[in-house]
Amino acid sequence: MAQEKRIKVDVEKVRKAIESGIPLTVTTYTLPHEIEEYACDILKTFLTELDQAQMADSLIYCLKELANNGKKANTKRVYFEEKGLDINDKADYELGMKNFKMDTMSNINYYLNLQKDKGLYIKISMQTRNNKIKVEVRNRVELTNFEYKRIHDKITRAQMYNSVEEGIASLLDDSEGAGLGLVIMILVLKKIGVTEENYQVISENGETITRMILPFSGKSTSDITDISSEFVKLIDGLPEFPENITEINRIINDPNSQMSDIALKISNDVSLTTELLKLVNSAAFSLSTPCHSIGDAVKLVGLRGIKNLLYSIGSMKALTEDSNEEIKALWTHAYRIAFYSYNLARNFLRTDKKCVDDSYVCGLLHDMGKIIFETAHPEVLDKISAMCEERGVSKNLFERMFAGVNHGDVGSLIAKKWNFPEVIINAIRYHHDPLSAPEEFRKITTLIYFADMLSHYSEGNFDYSLIEPSALKMFGITSEEALKVLADKLDNSFKKEQH
Description:
Blueprint: H1 11-20, E1 24-28, H2 33-49, H3 56-82, H4 90-106, H5 108-117, E2 122-129, E3 132-139, H6 145-158, H7 164-171, H8 180-191, E4 199-204, E5 207-215, H9 218-234, H10 243-253, H11 259-267, H12 270-280, H13 294-319, H14 325-348, H15 353-365, H16 368-375, H17 378-391, H18 395-403, H19 407-417, H20 422-430, H21 442-458, H22 469-474, H23 480-498
Antiparallel strand pairs: 1-2, 2-3, 3-5, 4-5
Helix pairs in contact: 1-2, 1-18, 2-3, 3-4, 3-5, 3-8, 6-8, 7-8, 9-17, 10-13, 11-13, 12-13, 13-15, 14-15, 14-16, 14-21, 15-20, 15-21, 16-19, 19-20, 20-21, 21-23
C-alpha cells in the first residue's frame, strides 16, 4: 500500500496568525485521515510556537475526538433523512440509532458524500489572545434536546472521577459508545488544568460549537506579564506628545474658549493646519465640498472631531520618526481601519454622534502597541532579550505575543501617558476582545474590532463563522454574502482613496 502523503504545515502562516490574533482554520466535509492529521499537526505547531508544547498530546486527543463526533453528528442527519425518520422525535431517534452504526459503516462513502453535497462541514479553528488559547470544532447541525442533555450528563459525570483510568473502569459499556470518548476527553482536559467553565458546548444558528479555552501555563503567563511590565518601564524614553497639539487640546477643553479662538490657534501653526485640512478632505470623510479653512473644518467636523484628529496627527508625528517598511505597512493598515471605522459608524451608527466622532481616531490608533514595539530602541530590546533568557522564556514567543495579540495593553499604556481620553484608551486595549471592554466603551470597541475583521476577511485571513456574533448583529449582517458585499464595498472605496 502506498504511504499516505502528509500535508505540510506552513509554519510562517501559524506565526502570523499568532501575531495578529486571527484564527487558524481547517474546513472539511468528510474528515479524511490526511486532513485530520493535518489539523493535528497545525495544532502541535501552534502550541510549540506558543511554548505550550506540554499541552500538545492532550489537545490532539481532544481535537480528534471532537472532529470525529462532529463528523458522526453530520452523518446521523443524512442517515435519518434517508430513512425518513425525524431526528428530533425521541421514538424515531431510538429507532434510527439501532442500525445507524452498522448501516453507515457498511456504506460510509455514500453517507459522507451525502453530507458533503448538503454542505455539512466540520470546521476546526485555533486562536490565541490575552494569554489564552481557544480551540473550536464546529459542525453544520444543531444538537437535538436529548443529544444535548446526554452530552452534559457525561460532562457532569466526568467531574466525579479523579483519573482517566477511573472513568474507563466505571463507564465501559457499548450503548452508542456510552459517551466514553467524551468522558475520557473531559478527564484529559482536567489533567492539564481545564475546568468545566473552560469547556463549552453551544448549539445555535444551525451549528454545534464545542469550545475549549485554555490559559497558558502559570509560569508562562507570569513571565510574559513581568517582561511586559519591564518593557513598559523601559519605553519611558518615548517622545512626548507634541506640545503644540497638547496646548490646542487644552484650549478645546476650556469651557470659556470660543470656536474662533480654537480655529485661530490651529491656523497659526502652518504645518498643523496643512495636516488637519489634508485629513478632513480625505475620502474617509466624504465632504460634499472641499474644506479650505480651519474655521470651516471646526464647523463641519465639530470640536470633538477636531480634537480627535489632533490626537491622530500628534500620534503620527511622535511615532513615525524612524519609519521603515514594516512601520509603513502598519500605518497603511491603521489608515484602512480608520477609513472602515468612520464609514461603518456614519452609515450604521449615525444616531450615536460620539461614536461617529471617535471612530476615525480609534481606528487609526488601534495598533499603536505594535508600532511602539517596532520603534523601540535596540538597547531596550537587548534588555528584554536578556530578561527572557534569564527567565527561560523564548524571545521569539515574547516578541510574537507582544508585537501581536498583547499589543493592546502596551498601546493603551502609551495612550494613558499622553493623556488621551478613556474612549481611545479602551478602544486600543480591547479591540481584539470587545466583549471584555467596559460597557460604556463596548460599542466603539466592537466597531473597531469589526472594521479590523473586515480587513482581514478581505485579505482571506479570517473566516466568517469566527466573527463575534454581537458584532455581526450590530451591523445587521445575517449571512456571509452580506458580509462579503460590505467588505468589498469598503475595500474598493479605500483603494480608490489610495490612488
